[in-house]
Amino acid sequence: MRVRSEGAPFIVGGLILILVAGLLGWTAVAALLALFTLFLLRFFRDPERIVPGSEGLMVAPADGRVVELEGGHLAIFMSIFDCHVNRAPVAGEVVDVVHTPGRFHPANKPQARENERNLIILKSGDQEIRVAQVAGMMARRILCWVRPGDRVEMGGKIGMILFGSRVEVDLPLGRWRFAVARGEKVRAGETVVAWEVKNER
Hints:
Blueprint: H1 8-23, H2 27-43, E1 57-59, E2 64-70, E3 73-78, E4 85-87, E5 92-100, E6 117-124, E7 127-134, E8 141-144, E9 151-152, E10 157-162, E11 165-170, E12 176-178, E13 185-186, E14 192-196
Antiparallel strand pairs: 1-14, 2-3, 2-13, 3-11, 4-10, 5-6, 5-9, 6-7, 7-11, 8-10, 12-14
Helix pairs in contact: 1-2
């Protein structure tokens, strides 16, 4: 299992605490710390994903559950047990990245629209696709791995959020039809969440 380097400080810290607890004879504490460190290894996992090859499709930008789906707006809630690597829903050019301070409401609630966020604006053909990494009640750190001028492929890695959060996508109205339902579980880079309407003609 591949693990993101961003998790190294947390994982190494956990291993050190396990060692210290073991040397002090705190067996129960060492066992709990070992479980927590295993959780960290799983949290920072970075699995390979098989990205669909067809054109006119949009893939999920995050693992998790669809919590909002209306108009051209899609929101996916990531629990602490989901993979937190975020991926580009479409291929395109990053034209802007905007960080906005905000609140830290639970990421699975509608109030999360007031939360701190990092907005990535993608230019895909003649369309502007907006992807927002949104902080949650526990998630206080948003990592963005792209900057204006970067070219991303559909399913390419664009960032990560620590710990438990959501990712939102806003699409041009009338250009896309969603292929998922509210409450559905999706996988970043693999699950098709929408297709271009023009492909139905």
